[in-house]
Each structure stands twice: as C-alpha cells, then as structure tokens.
Amino acid sequence: MTNKTMDTAYLNNLFLAYATNSISKTEFSELMGLIAEAKEDAELAAFMEKVWNSHELSQSFTELQSALLYERIINDRRFVPSAPKIPALQVAEPKGKVIFFNGWYLQAIAASVIILLSAGLLFYILDQGEQSVDEIAYTKDDIVAGGDKAVLIMANGQKVQLNDAIYQVAEQKEKINGAPVYNSIVTPPGGQYQVRLPDGTRVWLNAASSLQFPLSFSEKTRTVKLEGEAYFEVAHNKEQPFLVEAADQQLKVLGTHFNVEAYTNEPAVKTTLLEGSVLIRNTRAVQLGTASLEPGQQATLDGKKISVYEADLETAMAWKNGYFIFKDEDMPSIMRKIERWYNVEVVYPEELKHVHFEGTISRFRNVSELLRKFELTGRVHFKIEGRRITAMP
After folding, report:
1. Is the same domain home to 185 and 232?
2. Which of 78, 144, 221, 261 has the greatest CB tally within 10 Å of its CB?
3. Are 181 and 155 in contact (CB under 8 A)?
C-alpha cells in the first residue's frame, strides 16, 4: 500500500465525497479501485474498515446512515457485492391476483452490510465505461431522493436554513411576557431532520413535518407540538413528563421510544410504541377517554375513537430506517408518501386507487428507480414531467 492509501484523512474524504454526491470521476475510480484491491490485501481491508468506523466519520454519519451508505455502494450500477442476492418480495393485489415487486428485506440488508464488512469491502467491476457519476446516476427527467434539510423558525419570525445533519437546541431561559419562547423546525417536502432538545431527547422529523418546542422546558412538564411525522427517543425524567401534542391527541411519556404519524392528509393519527409506555388522550372527544400502549402496539385515532392494535414495527419505522416498506398498501397511500419524500405531485386515474402493492426499497434511490419497481409488476406505468408524475394503467 502507498502512503497516500494509508492516509486516514484522504480515505475519509473519499467516503464523504461519495456519500454527498460530490465525488469526481477520478475520485470515484480511485475509491472503487481501493475497494477492489482490498480483496487481495488484508492490511488494506482492515485499514479501510478502521477508517469507516473511526470517530471522525461517525461524526458525519449515524450508524444507520453508515449502513445506508454501504447499501448505496452495494447497489451502484457498476458494481455488485460479494454478498448473496436477496430474493424478490411477493406482492398481492385484491381478488387473489399475485404479482411481483423486487425489493430488499431490512434483515437481509443488515446481513449484507455485515458480510461486506467482514469480507473487507469486496466488490468487482461490471462496466465502469467513460460516463461520469452524475451522467449515470441521474437523467433529465429524474428526481433525486430527499435528504437532510430543514428550516428553523424563531419566535420573532426569523428563518434560518439548517445545513448540518443535526440541530442541537441550546437551552435559554428567555421569556416573552412571562411565557416560554417557542421555536419551530420545519422540514419541507423532500426533507428530513434530526433535532436534539435541551433535555437530551432526540427527535427525527420525516418530510413535510414541523416540531414546535420551547427553548427551556417548564418545571412541571416538557411539551412539544408536532405536525407530520416524527420518531422520538425521550430522555427519562419521572419528575417531568414529556408531552407531545399532535392533531387531536396528546401523548404523555416519561422516557420512551415511539413514532407519531399525524399528517393532515392521512385518514388517522398513528402512534407506534417501541420502548417504555405511552398514555394517549383524545383532546377533541374527551368522553372517549384514553388509551395506554405497551411496546409493540400501535394506536390509531380517526377523530372519533382510539383503537389499539399489534404493530408492524418494521413498516412503521421504515421511513426512519431509510426505506419504503409497502405491505398490501393501496395506491393512494403509497403515492402520498412518494409526494412527500420526493417533493412531487402524483396524479392517477380512479381505476388505480384500489390496486395494492407490497415490497421494500431504499428511500435514497432516484424516483425513476422506485417507480420502475412498480412498473415491473405490469400493473402500472409512469411518466415524469418536471415535478409532476402521472400514473397510468
């Protein structure tokens, strides 16, 4: 290995450039050459793995983002991983008709990442050709997936574009007329963002969502307001309950991991509990009472009543884990998710509204790659014009 190859900062920059789509053709060729070389050079393979797991790189990527980046490299059109292929997922349409939608299970992705790491990042070249990375990745009518972006709206109305992957709220005791000062973080369609509140609570915001929070919590409670969807990992404090107000419900927790989907264009508010406990109160129809959730349960509020079911955690957490997972899901529901994440408008005829699909795909693929999966079923076709997508039988 050359001294340049063994330069931690240099290799770090190659990884980061690939991850942020800023890598040049020369850098891309060099990175993939190193990955291929690692197959024959155990010392190089160990060094690359060490750099990937280094503190410097972990500051730029969460553990999940690291896994997603590997998945992205695995699926690069010019390379195929040494890990085994994942079988297609079966999908069913009403009336028993069976079609197929190629996808990946999350467990299989995780296994592929582990295999990839243990094998020392083994890849082989299919056809690099002379095209640049941009020419291969995007076409004129394609749309790039969403990413980390949000806007901070201060109490005085000032707006600040957030460029870092995570926003840490600095606690301030400032008040206006004796009342706490509230700021908001808003993700646009095509955006997602992570927020760390002053108490240590972490919040992941999905696309087209907003979180309103005080710069300092009161002595009695920690209250935030949510529109859209977010996953919470609440810092435990039994003396100061954490309250989430979303649509027509209020959640009360102490230290809990849960997901709330409260989009105004969805038929119900969904709360899914992963750890701890949640007390849900219907704020519009108090007479309908409350509901308590145990880990693995999901509550839905349709404006009339709260219903509790066993949750499909994999599906509920797919967005946060970087995937679309559709399980016997109808066309309108799927298209609403695509609209929010890709910042597009989707139109389709009435006859497609009752078609159901099932499958899994990374949220970080271009929209054309996602739509192509649906087209492979032979049930639907798409046309992309600007940011308008038309679905046709």
Report:
1. yes
2. 261
3. yes
Report whether 267 contacts 332 (CB < 8 A). no
Closest CA to 195 of 173, 172, 224, 237: 224
Q: Give the mean pLDDT of 119-137.
A: 31
Euclidean distance between CA atoms 245 and 227, whole angstroms: 9
Give the structural domain span for 24.
8-82+119-137
Average pLDDT over residues 335-346: 96
Global pTM reads 0.68
Q: Which of 20-29, 339-348, 370-379, 382-391 has the lowest average pLDDT?
A: 20-29
pLDDT at 93 exceeding the cut of 50: no
Domain count, the chain: 3
Which string of DSSP letters, residue by residue, matches 316-373? HTTTTTTEEEEEEEEHHHHHHHHHHHHT-EEE--GGGTT-EEEEEEETTS-HHHHHHH
Same-domain pairing of 162 and 290: yes
Spatial neighbors of 282 by CB under 8 A, at least 6 apart, are: 248, 249, 288, 289, 290, 301, 305, 306
Query: What pLDDT sits at residue 232?
Result: 96
